[in-house]
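#struct-queue
[09:14] JT: dropping the first one here, sequence first, then the structure tokens:
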Amino acid sequence: METRVHLPDSEPPATIREVVAALKKQKLIASHDKQSWGDWINFEGKQTVISIESMNGLTTSATIEEAEGEDDILIACITAFRKLGWFGEDEDGPYPL
């Protein structure tokens, strides 16, 4: 399952460091993995990942790719993004997390 999240257009971009720090505040062991094909946030010992769109270390959107049976990770991720002021987005448009 995928959950798209983003900052409102009126907000300045966040740093990936801020996002990782917010995830760590939710007791997740998160790390930023920068690859030539994109930026990822991985969780130690888990299959759930976050594909985070980045330009020069700044981000406004991401996709949480939840692995089966890791609902607790998804809930913690959504809580972290909510506390940062991000919104979810689906086919009907943005919604509060």
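[09:21] JT: and here's the second one, same format:
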Amino acid sequence: MSLLLLGAGLGAAQAQDADPEHTREALAWLLAASRVAIPGTSSCHGAYGERGVATVGGLLSMQLAYLYRGDNVLSGQCQGGPERHCVLNITHAFGEDRSSARIEFAVRSGRLSAGSLRCVITP
């Protein structure tokens, strides 16, 4: 429970300080890895309407598809040198309908490391 609250608090703080260029970088890494399979041991693993194995693209498309109304914010950032640590926060609010996703990952040797994917997704 505290992990969910911590993740929600960090997402709200980052949304206020969102920088489109930082968000673009984190989103670009995820889009470039859209066909990468999400390991079954990852907290990001789930059913995203795909046939077969869950992918980064399936995760991202499921989260973005429901941003069709309400107050929606994407905020992200990447830090570090050659090995980067990135996070993308997606928040949605429409009346009582509220959800958020925090997707964390590492970039190594110019590619998203599937084994580093971690998610906190709230309904």
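[09:30] RK: nice, looked through the second one.
[09:31] RK: Helices lie at 2-16, 20-32, 56-65.
[09:31] JT: good to know. Residues 5 and 61 are 24 Å apart (CA to CA).
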